[in-house]
Amino acid sequence: MKKIIPLIVLLALVAAVVIVTVTRKKTAAEPIAWYGSMPHPYITEVQAGAAACEKDLGTAIYRMVGQEWTQDNENVNVEALSTKGHKAFSIYPGDAAGANGLFSQLKRKGQFVVAYGCEPALPTPASFTVATDIKDAAMFAAEELIKIMGDKGNILNVLEIVTDVNTRKRDEGINEVVAKHPNVKIIQTIGDMAQVSEATNKIQSALAARAGKIDGIITTGYNPTIAAAAILTEWHKNPARKRIRFVGIDTGPTVLQAIRDGSIDATLAQNPFGHGYISCVILKMMLDGWTPKQDYQFINAGIVLVNKDNVDAYPQDVRKITDQILIDLKTRYLNAPKAH
Q: pTM of whole model > 0.85?
């Protein structure tokens, strides 16, 4: 027995070393951390882009989704992540101004930051924003709706999360466009719709009160677009009802089917997959020694108008935008690493 005891001790020591080594391997921080504000269809698509980037580039990307669409919640979560060894962050700003405080903390630690989905207030410590040009997209959608309406009539303006900076920009853009058309006016603005069910109730209430006076509806958020597409699909089944023209944003299955069957006119396809993919590619390049050509640059990830003519082909058009941006990263946005 005296000879067996040292052997058992030796085996235990070896096992302990193996366990520690394996544990360290599992908990080593991924170079890039991607952060989404809270569960939402948009965030899901962006995360898919980050996951695809991880697979294509072979670089580990830690992905985390928060609990609230607030800067305070984002600060708590990202500050915790920043202590775990991640070197670069792809983040949706919870608040245009407030996010810069968080970005400054990360930058002081030598960590790279790329914002996606929403441009922070300028100047910003972030090196890039990869996003839709929000205000421009809303203005484009409003012009399309007014054209379909024959440049006259009343619009129901349906917003999503009114505390979100992007929602405010979209509302500003729509009002600016309408102000240029003397025969068009916004008859009502409704908002604050974090769920499809909330959007459904509020849009139905507006139609019940003003159906005879509403000529067009514009929605600039995912949830109200899904709700409006379903409501108008049922609404237009009755030929006795007034035709209400519609332009939304984003491309859920309900929306695409409503376009195919003629229940709604159009929607704008954004590029959320590109928001995640491109932002993480940029971070990987910066970790590899590429440097931004300017202190800060906005990269417009693009939009595509989806109507009956291109409802089945538009994904290729969105992908072309992403592919071109990836090509431009090495010539337009970043400088190659310096030779040693």
A: no
Residues 6+ apart with CB under 8 A from 43: 36, 37, 65, 92
312: phi then psi, degrees, rounded to nearest 5 = -100, -10
What confidence tier does 108 reach under pLDDT thresholds 50, 70, 90? very high
Tell me the three state secondary structure of residue 5: helix
Alpha helices in the chain (DSSP H): 4-27, 41-57, 71-82, 98-108, 134-148, 165-179, 196-210, 222-235, 253-260, 272-287, 314-328
Q: Which two tokens stand for residue 85?
A: 């060894």
Q: Which fold has domain 134-269?
A: Rossmann fold (3.40.50)
- Which CATH superfamily is 27-132+273-302+318-335 part of? Response regulator (3.40.50.2300)
Which tokens is 131 given?
């996003």
Calculate mean pLDDT across residues 48-55: 97
Query: What residue spans define the domains of the chain?
Result: 27-132+273-302+318-335, 134-269
